[in-house]
Amino acid sequence: MAHTLDPKRTIAELKELRSFSADDHGAQRIAFTPMWVQVRAWLKSKLAALPVETHVDAAGNLWSTLKGKSDKCVLIGGHMDSVPNGGWLDGCLNVLAGVEILRRVAAQYDGVPPVTVRLVDWADEEGARFGKSLFGSSACSGNLDMDEARALVDKAGIRLPDALKEVGIDFENVKASHAELKDAVAYLELHIEQGPVLLDLDLPLGVVLGTFGVERHAISFHGQAAHSGSTPMNRRRDAFLAAAKMSPEIYEIAKRHGGVCTIGSCTTRPGIVTSVVEDCRITLDQRNLDAKGLASLYADARAASERFAKECNVEVSWERLWNIEPVLFDAQLKKFCEEAILETCGKLHLLPSGPLHDAAEVARAGVPTVMMFVQSLHGISHNKIEDTKEEHLELCVTAFDKLAEKTILAHA
User: Fold this and answer.
1) Residue 398's domain spans which residues?
2) Domain presence at residue 367
3) Assign residue 210 a region: left if phi > 0, alpha if psi is -120 to 50, beta otherwise?
4) In a domain, 1, yes or no
5) Are 255 and 341 members of one domain?
6) Where does Zn(2+) 1 bind (predicted)?
7) Is residue 260 part of a domain?
8) What letters, b where the CB count within 10 A reaches 16 and e where it falls short, cover 162-197?
9) Which of 124, 194, 253, 354 could lock onto 135 through a cystine, CB 3.0 to 4.6 A?
């Protein structure tokens, strides 16, 4: 078996996967569905040709292990599941690049590398069916909120524990997957950027500094319903007016502290054309790589909401929906990642990840972690038009393999 890496084979396998797991609307690899089971079987068929042991853990994560001279483990991860009508590269590029790296490592070291190398396909990274992202990795890290997850229901009314049972997973035992992280010394993840930063810089590859922390809240303004024809403008207690003032304000807040702020939904009551709005509920998503910056985003938004409520003679209340702290990736692994990219294409960019990734959960579990990004055409993901130039796909597989080798040798 040749020792050389074959990035073109990874691209061919990505196209093969697309041929049976996508339709005219995009990828349909939703976790815990029959198509996902079929995709998993296809992945296992690719791994069967390698000298690896493959199994599914208590949380439904698939692990393929190339045993080395040392028990120390270098982990390579991704996810085969997609959102409905998703892109052909999101998640699966990571896994199939990992398969190609396993082939190269197995050949180069006659099946026994200096350290153990493990590939993981995390279960339900997207959370598309039940609304809970990072299911498999958060179960493995120990951070999964069991009570919250137990209550999740899909659009058809199927409970998450019942859906898991259908694919052979005992929900109450999912955190036993934490044992898989024993002896892990590094976790590496490749991913399409999903945004426009590398595209705008005309760069193929980037080193990911870490994942944004997130503050997610619902903000409700409470005024008074009144007839839209008979109520003078200066007498109104218009909840929507106060909420509307938040829209430009969050852009100013983001300018001050960095990161991003998004009002993603707005609901009014009574919601009829002939009434001043009595109640208005908006949702706010704030993200920042710096913990202090994230706290400032939240504090300024809260202060602004109270100021606008007073100006409009209404009341305001806040409800925390979800939050997660920022995760900074390992300094040594980031250095290896920089070297790998520079050796591959001579230039790079360092950037944070706005979206969440399984890598963040592994890092939270105490495993040194890094991510590499490859440019996304259009800066678009979670969409059938998601794409990356084939020459960039070849570059990312090559650079990711160099990162893996540097990490292996560092722990040999």
Assistant:
1) 7-211+326-410
2) yes
3) left
4) no
5) no
6) 79, 90, 191
7) yes
8) ebbeebebebeebbebbebbeebbbbbbbbbbbbeb
9) 124
Bridge pairing between strands 213-222 and 315-324: antiparallel
Q: Is 90 annotated as a binding residue?
A: yes
At residue 253 the predicted structure's pLDDT band, cuts being 50, 70 and 90, is: very high
**At a CB cut-off of 8 Å and minimum separation 6, what does 384 contact?**
22, 24, 25, 26, 27, 85, 86, 87
Q: Which of 1-10, 62-71, 175-184, 310-319 has the lowest mean pLDDT?
A: 1-10
Contact between 80 and 123 (Cβ < 8 Å): no
Q: Which residues, 6 or more positions from 221, have their beta carbon under 8 angstroms from its beta carbon?
A: 239, 240, 242, 243, 279, 280, 281, 305, 308, 309, 312, 314, 315, 316
Nearest-10 Cα torsion for 383, 389, 395, 396: 0
Q: 126 labelled as ligand-binding?
A: yes
55 is in an annotated binding site: no
Q: Does residue 164 sit within a domain?
A: yes
β pairing state of 213-222 and 260-269: unpaired
What's the average model confidence in pLDDT over 249-256? 98
DSSP state of 234: G
Token digits of residue 318: 């806040």
Number of residues that this document lists for the chain: 412
Residue 24 is labelled as binding a ligand: no
Secondary-structure breakdown of the chain: helix, strand, coil percentages, each rounded to the nearest 5: 40, 25, 35
CATH number where 39 lies: 3.40.630.10
Show Cβ contacts of residue 292 under 8 Å, excluding neighbours closer than 6 positions: none
Distance CA 279, CA 243 (A): 10
**Percentage of the chain surpassing pLDDT 90?**
97
Mean pLDDT of 116-129: 97
**Three-class DSSP category at 136:** helix
Q: Of all helices (H) and strands (E), which one includes residue 248?
A: helix 239-257
Q: Which H/E stretch holds residue 352?
A: strand 349-353
Q: How far apart are CA 190 and CA 100, in angstroms?
A: 13
Q: For residue 227, list its beta bridge partners.
A: 275
